[in-house]
Amino acid sequence: MAEPAAPLNPPPIPIDQRIARRVVRPLRHTPVTPNMLTCVGLAVGLTAAWLFAQGVPHLTHWAGALFMLAIWIDHWDGELARLTGRTSRFGHYFDHAVSLANYVSNFVGIGIGLGAAALGGWAIPLGILAGVAVATIFGVRLLVELTQGRAAVKQPIRAGFETEDTMYILGPVAWAGLLEPFILAAGIGAPLFLVYVIRRALRPRRP
What we know:
Four Helix Bundle (Hemerythrin (Met), subunit A), disordered N terminus, 207 residues, single chain
């Protein structure tokens, strides 16, 4: 029987996801499972959050690099699952939970680390506010996915990047010593984006 023809216009794949597929390809015939890679991503993300919370410049540089690595590792488990046919509902939502934990912990960690900086007592509340807003955004998107399907929360890909890939900027921000304006912008911008996400979720679906 002839193999089915490939689709004429295959969906675009983000650049970091394409690289992740090449990295995990050698793991196809090993005991490594997608959920193991998810746990690795969680460990890397929480380590970054802890380093941010120390408020020491050279440690925040390492934290920025580890946070970027955690975002990239977030693609590893999905790619390995697709390559090995081990996709699962649990793995999908476990991946969401780990991403949520990494984002929230790092925002809070940055706030804690900046507690003695120019923002003073505002840094920690701003970090918590950004973290709570991000957690709520994840919750709204999850609700939309459960009620309307995954296609409803599919992110557009522009120039090889998804919307969430903008978080890679945290690495260069940490290296440049710009965490204070970043957490200030996140503390204000994340709640505003949450309002946009809620309004979009409540908008009637087009047939």
